[in-house]
Structure formats: structure tokens, C-alpha cells
Specification:
The protein is mostly beta strands. The protein has 3 domains: 22-116, Immunoglobulins (Immunoglobulin-like); 124-232, Immunoglobulins (Immunoglobulin-like), CATH 2.60.40; 246-320, Immunoglobulin-like, CATH 2.60.40. 6% of the residues lie in helices and 41% in strands. The protein has one helix spanning 2-20, and strands spanning 38-40, 47-50, 56-63, 75-76, 84-87, 94-102, 105-108, 112-115, 124-127, 133-137, 140-144, 149-153, 159-165, 189-192, 196-204, 211-213, 220-225, 246-248, 255-259, 265-273, 278-286, 291-292, 299-307, 313-320. The strands form 6 sheets. Strands 1, 3, 4, 6, 7 and 8 form a 6-stranded mixed beta sheet that branches. Strands 10, 11, 13, 15, 16 and 17 form a 6-stranded mixed beta sheet that branches. Strands 21-20-23-24 form a 4-stranded antiparallel beta sheet, with no helix packed on it. Strand 18 (246-248) and strand 19 form a beta hairpin. It is globular and about 85 Å long.
Length: 321
């Protein structure tokens, strides 16, 4: 009898203990498709977040920031007191969690993020070999015959199939037979060896029906020829009127400097990761000031710098160790 009582007491205690356990988690159709803790939206479609069955629910949201730790407050969403919560593409760059109660137990779920990197607008980086070109400004460059110019989509993770152009297209979206289309090139980069006006049209890889055009204002005009400055071709010298900025040290673990002493200062400096997300931005930056990037995750980044007069925009890559 004593053994039965002990067993019964143990069973009751176990049942009470089980009742007190509540470990909510969040699920949704898009969650974890590319990243385990993120939802990636296509345009502004709705997404339904769900958790397990409990007695009470309260959903919260927190605005994303590049700063670590994130000191933005968690805000209770008015009326969000059910098992499910519907969010949309307008909720990008927010974290979500749910606090639940069951009997005498109260607990909160791990946070998930509604991300929007698929909306990184197309941007093109131009890579030239020192000593082989002269930048005329306004998107026009003289290039030495025999050299090449490499164009890259700044956000290759975002976009899949590309259509590259060597002149302004007559139709957007692309139409088969357009003489401006570079035949057989669908990747996120292209190396040009002849004169033309270059740009691209691309569709996002995650959302195949979501396509973007670079825009003719962002096309780059190349004029290949035997220019006077080409006499120095191969010596490493360059007479570019508006060369890319010096980025140093590169790679870097903590401090990064950008430099073109002629500019003295930059109206705006933005650092973008390879998913297209803005991770750091500085206003009115002086060329000799250090930029602390120690908090960034190791990897490749794009740094976009605007001159004080707003006429020049520089795009460079750097590596965070």
C-alpha cells in the first residue's frame, strides 16, 4: 500500500509539473525557408504566425537596428491576443515574439524576424583596372582597347537570373530579339570589352516574379579606344579624374578608413552587407576619421560614399575579418 501511495504521489507531482510547462514556439509557411529565424517576404503578401494552444496570448514586436545589443523596446501589439498573428511585407525589419500563459505557467517564445532583404533595389558596381581608364564623370568612362570593365550586381544573393544590356533597351521587361541584350549572359556579373551603355534587369531568386530594372540613369557608358593616357597601360598609374576611394586597411578587424583627400569630407557613408541590408551609416564623415566596424559579422561588405556636393558616389568593397 505504501508503495502504491508513493507511486500515486509521484504521478500527481509529474502531472502538475507537466501542466506547468509551457514552451511556445512560432511557426509560419515562410519561416526558415532560407534562414532559420527569419521570414522573407515577396512584395506585401500576408504571412500568418502561429503558436501552440495555450490559455492566453500576447504578441509583441521590436524594431530592427544594426546596433548590438538591440535596445529598441518590445511593444505589445494591440488586439493581438489569439493563437495566430497576421503580418505583411509592411512589417519588414521587425522582430516578433509571443508571451503565453497556461495555468500557473507564463513563458515567451524565441523571437523571429520579418526580413526584407529581397527588396534590396538593384545596384551595379563597376570595377576597372588602374591605368586603363579615365573617368569623365556622369557615368561615362574612357577605357583602353584591350582592357575590360567588370560589372557586378551589388546584391547577388537577392537576385537570380539577369538580363544584361549594352545599350538602352527599348522594352522593359526584356523582349526577345532586343539588340541591346547581351546574348547568353544571365549571371550576376559581366565583363565588357567593347563600347556601349551597360546595365541590367534581374529577378529576385526567392521571389521569381519580382523583377527590377537598374534604370537608365544608373547605366555606365564605356568608350573603348587608344586614348593618350593608355601609354601608361600596365604601369599601375591612373589619370582618372574621379578614381574609386582608397579603402584601408582591407581586410580589417576593427577600424576602416576611406580616403580621397581632395574630397576632405563625405556627406554620407553607408555600409551594406551582401544581403542588401544597411548595417551602418554616418553623416558628414571626414576622410581622416576612423569608422569602427568591429561589431560587424565577418564577411564581405559594400561601402557607398557620397561627396559633400552630392555629385560623386563611390562604391567599394571591403572585407571584415
Amino acid at each position: 500500500m505504501k508503495t502504491k501511495l508513493i507511486f500515486f504521489a509521484f504521478l500527481v507531482f509529474s502531472m502538475l509539473n507537466m501542466k506547468a510547462q509551457c514552451n511556445p514556439t512560432i511557426t509560419s509557411p515562410r519561416l526558415g525557408v532560407q534562414f532559420p529565424d527569419r521570414i522573407l517576404f515577396c512584395e506585401t503578401e500576408d504571412e500568418v504566425l502561429s503558436t501552440q494552444v495555450f490559455d492566453n496570448y500576447q504578441w509583441y514586436k521590436q524594431e530592427w537596428t544594426w546596433q548590438t545589443p538591440n535596445n529598441n523596446p518590445w511593444v505589445a501589439i494591440p488586439g493581438a491576443n489569439s493563437q495566430q498573428l497576421t503580418i505583411s511585407g509592411n512589417d519588414q525589419l521587425y522582430y516578433f515574439k509571443v508571451v503565453v500563459s497556461q495555468g500557473d505557467c507564463t513563458a515567451e517564445s524565441p523571437a523571429i524576424m520579418a526580413d526584407g532583404f529581397v527588396y534590396g533595389l538593384p545596384a551595379m558596381m563597376t570595377t576597372l583596372t588602374p591605368g586603363t581608364y579615365e573617368d569623365l564623370g556622369a557615368g561615362e568612362i574612357n577605357v583602353c582597347e584591350g582592357a575590360s570593365v567588370k560589372f557586378d550586381n551589388v546584391f547577388p544573393i537577392v537576385y537570380g537570373v539577369h538580363t544584361w544590356y549594352k545599350c538602352f533597351p527599348s522594352n522593359i521587361p526584356p523582349v526577345a530579339g532586343d539588340p541591346c541584350i547581351v546574348s547568353g549572359v544571365t549571371g550576376d556579373s559581366y565583363s565588357a570589352t567593347e563600347s556601349g551603355q551597360y546595365g541590367f534587369y534581374a529577378c529576385t531568386e526567392y521571389c521569381p516574379d519580382q523583377c527590377k530594372f537598374l534604370g537608365t540613369n544608373s547605366f555606365v557608358k564605356l568608350n573603348f579606344g587608344n586614348w593618350e593616357f593608355c601609354e601608361n597601360m600596365g604601369t599601375g598609374e591612373t589619370r582618372s579624374k574621379d578614381n574609386s576611394l582608397r579603402i584601408y586597411p582591407n581586410p580589417t578587424a576593427q577600424f576602416l578608413y576611406i580616403g580621397k583627400e581632395a574630397d576632405k569630407s563625405y556627406k554620407e557613408v553607408s555600409i551594406i552587407d551582401m544581403t542588401g541590408k544597411l548595417v551602418l551609416q554616418k553623416k558628414d564623415h571626414q576622410h581622416h576619421q576612423a569608422i569602427d566596424v568591429s561589431h560587424l559579422v565577418p564577411g564581405n561588405y559594400i561601402i557607398v560614399s557620397k561627396s559633400t556636393d552630392g555629385k560623386n558616389v563611390y562604391k567599394n568593397k571591403f572585407i571584415k575579418k
